[in-house]
Amino acid sequence: MPGESKITVPEDYLRNLEKKVEDLKALREVSVLISSTLDFNDLMTLVMEKAKKVMSAEACSILLYNKNTKKLEFEVALCQEEATSDVLKEKITLELGQGIAGWVAENLKPLVINDAGADSRFYRDADKMTGFKTKSLIAVPLVGRSGLVGVAEIINPESKDFFDAYDSEIFQTLCRQVAIAIENACFYKESLEKERLRQELEIASSLQKSFLPDSPVFTRGNLTVSAVNIPAAKVGGDLYDFIEPAEGKAGVLIGDVSGKGVSGAIYMAKIISDFRYIANKADSPEAALKLLNDQLSRAPRGMFLTAVYLIADIHSGELQVSVAGHPPLLLVTEDEVKVLDIPSGPPLGIVPAEYPSSVFQMKKGDRLLLLTDGTFEAKSKKGERIGFERFVLFINKHRGDGQLVQTIVEYVQGFSKGAEMADDLTMVELKWMSGS
Amino acid sequence: MKIEVIDYKGKKVMEVSGEIDMHASPSLRKELMSLVSKKTTPLLVDLKGVSYIDSSGIATFVEGLKGMMAFGGKLKLASIPAGVMEIFNFSKLDKVFEIYGDLDDAVNS
Fold first, then answer.
1. CA-wise closest residue to A93 among A115, A111, A120, A68
2. Which candidate from A259, A303, A345 shows the least CB-CB separation from B92?
3. pLDDT at residue number A6
4. Are residues B64 and A302, on separate chains, in Cβ contact within 8 Å?
5. Class of domain A212-432
6. Which of A56, A380, B19, B20 could connect to B57 by a Cys-Cys bridge, CB 3.0–4.6 Å?
7. pLDDT digits over A56-89, tens only?
């Protein structure tokens, strides 16, 4: 037709153009694929398969940078022989600067090597161990938002002798996507792990609560015992228990385990079950704590327990009390707050010891407070502690309060407002409401 | 918290200063248990510079003491400041540990 012009394009140019379009398509597909998976293992296999295909290579590998050991470790290697991948994964790690991958990781620059055997940086042991022959390769640093993630290598082109600058460009484009995808998958893996730990702690917390009495209030005759237990973390190291060791008797235990966190919680559970077994056989607090001390002496890592165990006669109000390195008991009467000076043995679980019982008579309206040091050692935002003396003065001022325990809890929490709660807070109150 | 191990009048002394809390206890444990496993006895611990100790710190010394007792070794604590001594007295740990007024008393014991 007139006016129509014809452009002649060399066939080579056209083939090149077609290949570039194909490569771009493949890159786009890969990028969609890798950004759609967050599973780390799936991602690794997927990336390697696609890279091998897009780059028409015999093998490819990803070494991940371990920030703790500062070494490169083979994460995946895809070759014809599966055994080759296993050898690489199990046996080979590289220092920064060691081998071609180490050089790339250290300098954060890609490398195109035409003849690996002639390059002094080439780490020959990998080929020796696997039997694979590396000829030409491209190594690219994988850099994410948080810095070096690893190194990706593509090895031996399938249809030519060595890779060229164009291959390197394509591989680098692919690697930019890969680095971000790996980083995302790592973050996802970490957040899954954190969530798993959080759930484990949740379960540990409810398990631990199940070791404490079902109800925090225990009434027998004229005696009412009530407890408050507020752990500083999900699981705590404070404990209390109410039991009936014999007809007409009530046993009350309060304790503080030296460890915190999960180890403290497991130790606490062991103590409660040992205590219940022992206390139902022992006829005095003295005998019970002595047996419990023997039982706990094998505790690991120097863990120990401070405790008070008392047995109350629910008809007469007489108490037998034994103390093992625990903070003093406070007797709150109508007129005063008395710090009871009861002879004490050392904490349980350290050395063989005696825990002599003291006898004490409660009078009508008396309240006996058993507490752990999380009460008076509470720390303010400025780092100041309440201190035992100030704590006793506060209780004295509020001794007429019908809800004394609640008032104390509010005081302690108010004092440490804005500061991280460092220790568990536990109080047990015994109220005697008899005629005498 | 700072730890230094020195020789004083022919005895090994561990000088500890600062706050011994749950963050500091692991490094105290490492140092102490390494001396215990080498059967360093008597081992003197100078606590002059300690401003606070919590139950994790005390448990670390308890572990050291138990380790020493297992082979008949001695762990001696010296120069405990009044505020820290209160915690020891309150918990009746003075019944558990050998405690001395100062380092020379511990050396001569």
1. A68
2. A345
3. 79
4. yes
5. alpha beta
6. B20
7. 888 888 899 998 889 988 776 665 555 555 656 6
